[in-house]
Write a structure and sequence with these properties.
94% helix; single chain
Length: 48
């Protein structure tokens, strides 16, 4: 499989995933943002 074909396949699957799992993805993104925020705040408080 050529690189271009692989890229097209992954784009296709990403679009399908996005359609199917939009709520899951946005939830996961929110959790990730929240985790990053918490970790950043704990790092700052530990350094003080």
């Amino acid at each position: 499989m050529s690189e271009q074909a692989q890229v097209k396949e992954s784009v296709k699957s990403i679009k399908a995933e996005r359609k199917r799992g939009l709520n899951v993805l946005s939830l996961a993104a929110r959790v990730k943002i929240l985790e990053d925020f918490v970790f950043r705040n704990t790092d700052i408080s530990e350094e003080d």
